[in-house]
Every structure is written in structure tokens, then in C-alpha cells.
Amino acid sequence: MRLIFFTFLFLYSASVFATNWQKVYINPMGESYVDVNNLEKRNNVVYYSRLFDYTQPSPIGVNSSVSQFTVDCIGEKITWLSSKYFKGRMGKGEVIKEGNFNRRMFPRPDTVDYVTMKFVCNYKQLNTYYQGEILRSSYLLKK
Fold this sequence. Notes:
The protein is of the alpha+beta class. The protein has one domain (about 1-140): Lipocalin (Beta Barrel). About 20% of the residues lie in helices and about 40% in strands. The chain has three helices and seven strands, in the order H-E-E-E-E-E-E-E-H-H. The protein has helices spanning about 1-15, 110-125, 140, and strands at about 20-25, 30-35, 40, 45-55, 65-70, 75-85, 95-105. Strands 1, 2, 3, 4, 5, 6 and 7 form a seven-stranded antiparallel β-sheet that branches. The longest helix has 16 residues, at about 1-15. It is globular and about 40 Å long. Residues about 10-15 and about 125-143 have low confidence and may be disordered.
């Protein structure tokens, strides 16, 4: 019951107060950001919001998305809670689509999910140190 309460509290607070987006990943599809002001740590689990700003709009007109996740930093397991897809850039404009997923995954290295997981866990100083650099996969930046 407490987990459900904290999840809803996190989802509400993330949508209202998400103001400090820090870029953590770049690839040809777009740029990924984490709201560092609203990272929540409970034991070894971090709750976070990720914004993805697409390079090109999707066929239905999506230019950005804001998603909520939890990550077990010890087990390196992410749970994708929900997403909203926006017509505008940087999570602005009309919401085109939204959904709740509760999908669990173990991300592979050099994926946006893996790099973001490492960023939020390191930002909260759970298992290694974060040096304040933008984390990016070098081979994805080649053109």
C-alpha cells in the first residue's frame, strides 16, 4: 500500500515540479534528460522522470515524451511506470498520447535506459561516483 502511495505521490510531484532537466544521453534519435530536482531515493530504489526530445517527429506528431521510472540500483532493474507523449518539444504542448505500463526490464549497456539508470543511481551516490559529465555512448555520436 505504501509503495502505491509513493508511486502516485512521485507521479504527481514529477509532473508538477519537473523543472531541472539535465541532459544525460544523445543519439541520432534525440536527446534524453533527467529531472535532477525530483529524484527520490527509497532504500536502493530511485524514482525519476526522463524527458526524451526526438530529432524528428513521429508519424503521429510526437516530438517529445516524459516518462516515469523506478530503478533498483543494486539489481540494475528498471520499472517503466508511465509516459506522456507531447506534440511540442521538451515536454511542452498538447498531450497526444499517454499510458501506464508497469514494465520491468534489465537494460543492455549502451542503451538510453542503461545510461540513464547509471546516471540516476550515481547521482544519488548509490554504487559508484558521478563526475558531472554528460554520459554518452561514443559510437552513437558518430555520423
